[in-house]
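User: My instructor asked us to take a sequence, write out its structure as tokens, and then describe one feature of it. I'm not sure where to start. Here is the sequence I was given:
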Amino acid sequence: MAIIVQKFGGSCLVDADAVKNAARIITGEYRGGNSVVAVVSAQGDTTDRLIRRADEISKRPPKRELDVLMSAGEQLSAALLAMAIGEEGCPCVALLGWQAGIVTNSVFGQARIRDIQPDRIKKELSQKKIVLVAGFQGVDRKNNMTTLGRGGSDTTAVAGAYGIGADVCEIYSDVDGVFTIRPAVAPSNLLKGLEINGADIVVDRSMATNKPGCFAAGDCTGRPYQLTKAVGEGNVAAHSIVAYLAERQA
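Assistant: Let's start with the prediction itself. The structure tokens for your sequence are:
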């Protein structure tokens, strides 16, 4: 039996059908004999809508109260997904970040995880329950609600997987843009117009391809086929993507 952490992005939970589909994925792993922890993001553009609601009230909302508001989206997702899993006939419990033991510093809006206290999650798993965790949020040492910034639910999933000693951490996103390939799939088939040299994707030092906003890393960029190369290039590509998105949002 493995401990599996699954993270579902907002695009995977955008409506009732999507929530039910996520529930089927989770319960499929559970029925296969695994212990499952699922971390969820807010549905669709919920976080953006909550920010707009705050702006209607105050042009400079207090950061502490803004974190309380913004964390509501993930709470909604966790509750709805727990209901859907219940409909599938599997035991489940939904936890907020503080209940799941996500302890952060006190930088509201951009908090960083300082500690994972996994006792509650492990207790629920020992009782053969599926555990849902509201991502993107935690609690500081003074019991204030905090949020982890954009991409915070991914951070929750990875940190949580480490904290509970999970065997696998899976990230689910219902968008076109992240691909993994195997030798039987030609890189040229991933994206029309992608520059290829032989069997390899051509990239620059930032791991950018000739297609704006498209970055590649690992074996698909050529030799040597080594884990250290893939990890290093992946890190560079991730930072390049963040910079690319920040520039577009500026």
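For the description part of your assignment, you could build on this observation: The mean pLDDT is 89. Try explaining in your own words what that tells you about the chain.
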